[in-house]
Putative ABC transport system ATP-binding protein (Sphingomonas jatrophae), 226 residues
Amino acid sequence: MLSLRNLSRAYRTDTVETTALDAIDLDIADGEFVAIMGPSGCGKSTLLNILGLLDSPTSGSYDFAGTEVAGLPEAKLSAIRKRHIGFIFQSFNLVDELSVRENVELALLYHGIPAAERRARVDRVMDKVGIAHRAAHRPSQLSGGQQQRVAVARAVVGEPKLILADEPTGNLDTAHGEEVMRMLQALNGEGATIIMVTHSPAHADYASRVVDMLDGRVLIERRQAA
Ligand code: ADP
Ligand code: ADP
């Protein structure tokens, strides 16, 4: 599915250079569920942003599903991102001017799917995450747990190859956090590749592989029975 080779990302200001990622090598196969852990500032968000084509490496290569994407122009990155990658953020990132249904449907607009089929797919996925009865509400009218379920629906409605989750349970209480983890587990069971940043060892236990980072490098990787 994806492969990073000698990949680095540096941030430069007038006076300081920060190496956020330092010569990372990482391979992730189709169908894996990978948890990325490590202390604040070790490069987790930078790595996830690069994996999600939201940011580009300073050097090194990134093969995404057979395409070398490091150095591609933003228009191309954006096209791949919309078609093949679903994002789930800690802060949900829903559009409050739109209804729940419209938020989910937004993710399908670039897929060239006829309106009737789009509606059917949106209905199916809202049903699947248990949010169908809130379709006409605005995100701000929902609880945090419900908002994250909408975000999960939006991330998966386009049937992306890859789902990236940046601390998806960070703003949720324990019960709602577990609920989101079980949803990710079910999606992984259906074949989705998932890469998740988390601070929670209990939530990392849902993954089939844990990547521990320190100072922009992969410190240790372990595979585990999910
Ligand atoms: P984590 O997600 O593990 O907390 P980040 O990827 O956010 O780590 O940050 C890695 C390093 O890169 C940190 O030292 C951080 O200060 C630095 N960094 C992140 N984003 C920027 C930026 N936009 N400008 C300058 N430095 C940054
Ligand atoms: P935070 O670290 O504040 O919790 P998020 O996890 O919400 O940030 O977002 C991680 C990164 O993804 C940020 O750099 C943000 O700019 C970017 N991002 C967030 N939402 C979107 C979006 N809908 N589309 C594109 N990029 C986004």
User: Anything to note?
Assistant: Residues 11, 18, 20, 38, 40-46 surround adenosine-5'-diphosphate (ligand 1) (CB under 6 Å).
